[in-house]
Write a structure and sequence with these properties.
mainly beta, 41 strands
C-alpha cells in the first residue's frame, strides 16, 4: 500500500507525488501538488513554500469549485500566492470544463475577506458607438472604517482615455456623502482632421442629521454635454436621463411648527429649458385650538375652533425655448401668507358640519424681462394681492348590513358617505396680471359661489367566525361634481367617478371616468345621456402554485442528478392590462396594452422566465424577454433573449434608432462563479458570482452595459455609499 507524501504546516496540508523539504530553511517543494488554501483549490507541477506567507505554483490550476473534476478552473504558468492577500498569475487561461473561454496575459485574484484595499478588476467590451474598450484599471483604497477612495482609468479605442474617481464617507447616525466624477479627453479622427474635446461629469450627495429635529441634504449633478451619459455610462437609468437636477434642502421641526429651505436647479438636456429656485422657503404652523378646553371640563362648541398658518417665499427663474434660437424667461420673487379658521361641529349626533374661512395675501416682485414686458406685467415694482373665501362643509355616514352566511361570508357592510360643501369667494381684481404671470395668489377677478357634491361608497365583508374571522374590502367607489352659481353657462362641472376592488387576494381592478353633462352643440343639460370625456381601466392578476408532472410530460429532468425536484414545480403568473381613452380635444387618444410575465421552475436548479407587452392600439408586441437560468453548483448560467420595439426616434433611447419601428434583438448569455465575474453579451459567455468580499471585484465583457460596483461595508457596519 502506498500513500502520497504530505507536507503539514499548521493547518495547511499539501500533498503530491514527491516531496522535498529543507528543515533548516523551512522551505519545501512538492511535485504534482494539490491543496486547499484560503477557500480555494490548487493543483500544480510544483508547489514551493518560499516564506511563511508566500508560495509559488508553477504550471498550476486555481479554482474555487470543490469537485474533483471542477466545473471551471484557471490555468497559469506562474502563480504567486500571498497568504490572506492575493494570487498573482501570468498568463491566465480560463476553462469551463476543458473548454478554454478566456485568455488574459496577467491577472490578480484577491484572497482577502471583507472590505479592504486592492486593485480593481478589468472590464472589456464594446460601447454602442462601436468602439472597443478596456476599463476599470485602477485601485480601491479603504482608508478607514469611515471613508474610502476609488480611482480608475478606461481606454476607449476611438475616443481615448476616461478618468473616473469616487470618494465615499459615512459616519453612522450623523452624516454620509460621496463625490464621483469622470473626465474624458476625446480625440476623434475624421476626414476633416482631428477633433479634440473635453467631456466630464460630477455627481455629489450629502446627507446629515444636524440634530434630532433638523436635517440637511444636498445633491448636485453636472455634466459637460447632452450625450455624455449616453456615450460613457453603462447604467440604463443614466442613459435614459434627460433632466439634470441639483438641490440642497434644510428642514427644521419645532414643537408646533416647521421650517424648510430648498435650493434647486433643473435643466432639460433636450430642450435646454431650465428652472431655478434660489431659494424656496416654507414656514407652517400646525393647526392649534383657539380656545382650548379647561382640563377636566366638557368641551363646548367654541373649543372646537382651530387656526393654522403657513407662508411660502419663492425666488423663481425659468427659461423655456421659444424657437430654435431664442428663449422666454420668467424671473420673479413671490411671498404668500395663508391662514385658515375652522369650527367643526356635530349636529344631532350624526351630521358633521364644518364652517371655515381662509385669508391669503401674496406679495410680488417681477424682474424686467422681454416676456414680462410683452404680457404687460409691471416690472421692477412691488405688488400686493389679498383674497379670501368663506365656506361650510357637511357630511354624514350611513350604514347597511347583510348577513348571508353563504360561501364563508358571514356579514357584508355597505357604508355610504355623502358630503356637500359651499364656498364663496369675493372678486379680487388687484394685480391680476401678476397673479397670471407668477401663478401665486388666490381669488379671481369675478365673484364665485359654488356647491360641491360627493358620494363615497365602501363594501366590506367579514369572512369566517370566531378566531378565524377576517375582514376584506370588496369595493370602493366615489363620484363628485360641483355647481357654480355665478357662471353664465355650464354651471355644472364635469361629473367624475372612480371605483376599485380587491375581490380576490390576487386580483386588483380599478376604473375611472369623466363625463360632460352638457350637449356641446346646444349647451343644454343632459343628465340622462352625458358625454364621455375620459375613461380608464386597469386590472392586474397574479397566480402562484405548483405544476405537477412537468417532467413526465416534457421529459425535462429525466436524466439529471439527485438535486432535481420531482412531483411539482413552482410557478408564478402575472397579467396586467391597461386601457384609457381621452376625448377632450377634437381627436380621440387611446392607450391599450397588456403585460404578461411567467416565472417557472421546472426543477430545483432550472428556472424559466418569459415576459412581454402587447400594444393593442398598434397591433404589435412592443417588447418581450425570455430568460433561462441554471444553477451549476459553483456557477450560475443564464441565457437571455430580448426584443425591443422603439416606436419613434428619441434621444433618450439606449441606442437611437435610424427609423421608426426599429427592432433590437439581444442575445445575452451569462454564467457566474465564486471567483470573478465577467459578462459577454450577444455571443454567449459566462458571468461570475460575486466573491465574499466588499471591495469592487467585477470584470466585465459587455457591449451594452457594465455591472455596478458593490457598495463597500466597513468592519464596524457603516455602509459606505457607492
Amino acid at each position: 500500500m502506498t500513500q502520497r507524501p504530505k507536507l503539514a504546516d499548521g493547518q495547511q496540508v499539501v500533498d503530491g507525488d514527491t516531496l522535498t523539504y529543507n528543515i533548516d530553511s523551512q522551505r519545501g517543494r512538492i511535485r504534482g501538488s494539490a491543496t486547499k488554501f484560503e477557500n480555494a483549490y490548487y493543483k500544480g507541477g510544483d508547489f514551493k513554500k518560499y516564506t511563511e506567507d508566500v508560495f509559488f505554483v508553477t504550471h498550476g490550476v486555481y479554482t474555487t469549485c470543490d469537485r474533483d473534476d471542477p466545473h471551471f478552473h484557471f490555468e497559469s504558468r506562474d502563480m504567486e500566492v500571498i497568504r490572506g492577500d492575493k494570487v498573482i498569475a501570468r498568463p491566465v487561461v480560463m476553462r469551463i470544463g476543458e473548454l478554454p473561454v478566456a485568455v488574459l496575459p496577467y491577472y490578480i485574484f484577491p484572497l482577502r475577506r471583507g472590505r479592504h484595499s486592492g486593485f480593481l478588476p478589468l472590464r472589456f467590451g464594446n460601447f454602442d458607438r462601436g468602439q472597443r474598450f478596456i476599463g476599470n484599471a485602477g485601485y480601491y483604497w479603504a482608508a478607514s472604517d469611515y471613508w474610502d477612495v476609488q480611482g480608475a482609468l478606461d481606454f476607449n479605442e476611438n475616443t481615448g482615455i476616461v478618468l473616473r474617481s469616487v470618494v465615499n464617507y459615512a459616519w453612522r447616525y450623523h452624516l454620509s456623502w460621496y463625490v464621483s466624477g469622470s473626465y474624458a479627453r476625446e480625440s476623434i479622427r475624421t476626414y476633416l482632421g482631428q477633433n479634440r474635446s473635453t467631456r466630464w461629469n460630477l455627481v455629489a450627495d450629502h446627507r446629515q442629521d444636524v440634530s434630532p429635529t433638523a436635517s440637511l441634504s444636498a445633491n448636485v449633478n453636472f455634466v459637460s454635454d447632452k450625450s455624455f451619459y449616453q456615450n460613457y455610462s453603462a447604467d440604463p437609468t443614466d442613459r435614459r436621463q434627460r433632466t439634470i437636477t441639483s438641490q440642497a434642502h434644510f428642514d427644521k421641526r419645532f414643537s408646533k411648527s416647521s421650517f424648510s429651505v430648498l435650493l434647486q436647479s433643473t435643466e432639460n438636456l433636450d430642450t435646454d429649458a431650465r428652472t431655478r429656485l434660489l431659494p424656496s422657503v416654507d414656514f407652517s404652523m400646525y393647526s392649534r385650538s383657539l380656545i382650548p378646553a379647561d382640563s377636566g371640563k366638557k368641551a363646548r362648541w367654541y373649543n372646537s375652533g382651530y387656526l393654522s398658518y403657513g407662508s411660502h417665499m419663492s425666488n423663481y427663474e425659468n427659461r423655456s425655448r421659444r424657437d430654435s434660437t431664442s428663449f422666454d424667461q420668467r424671473k420673479y420673487v413671490t411671498v404668500t401668507h395663508q391662514s385658515s379658521l375652522s369650527f367643526p361641529q356635530r349636529l344631532f349626533g350624526h351630521i358633521n358640519i364644518s364652517p371655515n374661512a381662509s385669508l391669503q395675501e401674496a406679495w410680488y416682485y417681477i424682474f424686467d424681462t422681454p416676456l414680462a414686458r410683452e404680457q404687460g406685467v409691471p416690472v421692477e415694482a412691488f405688488g400686493r394681492r389679498l383674497s379670501g373665501s368663506l365656506g361650510v362643509g357637511s357630511s354624514t355616514n350611513l350604514y347597511g348590513f347583510l348577513n348571508p352566511h353563504l360561501f364563508g361570508v358571514s356579514a357584508i357592510r355597505h357604508s355610504m358617505t355623502p358630503s356637500v360643501g359651499y364656498t364663496f369667494t369675493p372678486p379680487v381684481k388687484s394685480h391680476d396680471e401678476m397673479r397670471s404671470f407668477t401663478g401665486a395668489g388666490g381669488g379671481s377677478s369675478s365673484r364665485s359661489q359654488s356647491l360641491s357634491f360627493s358620494l363615497n361608497n365602501a363594501l366590506d365583508a367579514k369572512l369566517g367566525e370566531g378566531e378565524k374571522e377576517r375582514k376584506v374590502s370588496l369595493l370602493t367607489a366615489s363620484m363628485q361634481a360641483s355647481y357654480n352659481f355665478e357662471a353664465k353657462q355650464r354651471r355644472w362641472s364635469n361629473l367624475s367617478a372612480s371605483a376599485s376592488t380587491n375581490l380576490a387576494s390576487r386580483l386588483q381592478f380599478s376604473t375611472s371616468a369623466v363625463w360632460d353633462l352638457y350637449d356641446p352643440a346646444t349647451l343644454k343639460l343632459q343628465w340622462a345621456n352625458p358625454r364621455l370625456l375620459a375613461f380608464d381601466v386597469s386590472a392586474a392578476m397574479t397566480l402562484t402554485g405548483n405544476s405537477s408532472a412537468f417532467s413526465s410530460v416534457t421529459g425535462i429532468g429525466s436524466h439529471r442528478d439527485s438535486s432535481i425536484t420531482t412531483g411539482s414545480s413552482p410557478f408564478n403568473l402575472a397579467v396586467s392590462h391597461h386601457y384609457s381613452e381621452s376625448r377632450y380635444g377634437r381627436g380621440n387618444s387611446v392607450t391599450n396594452w397588456t403585460g404578461v410575465r411567467v416565472d417557472f421552475d421546472p426543477t430545483k436548479n432550472w428556472s424559466v422566465q418569459y415576459q412581454q407587452t402587447i400594444n393593442w392600439s398598434l397591433h404589435m408586441i412592443t417588447d418581450q424577454r425570455f430568460v433561462i437560468h441554471r444553477d451549476l453548483h459553483c456557477w450560475e448560467a443564464e441565457v437571455t433573449w430580448a426584443e425591443l420595439i422603439t416606436l419613434k426616434p428619441v434621444g433618450t433611447a439606449l441606442k437611437p434608432p435610424v427609423q421608426a419601428n426599429t427592432t433590437k434583438k439581444v442575445l445575452n448569455c451569462r454564467c457566474s462563479a465564486d471567483i470573478f465575474p465577467y459578462h459577454i453579451q450577444g455571443i454567449g459567455g459566462m458571468i461570475g458570482r460575486d466573491p465574499p468580499m466588499c471591495f469592487p471585484d467585477r470584470m466585465d465583457f459587455t457591449n451594452v452595459s457594465s455591472v455596478q460596483t458593490p457598495m463597500p461595508v466597513s468592519s464596524s457596519g457603516v455602509r459606505l455609499a457607492a
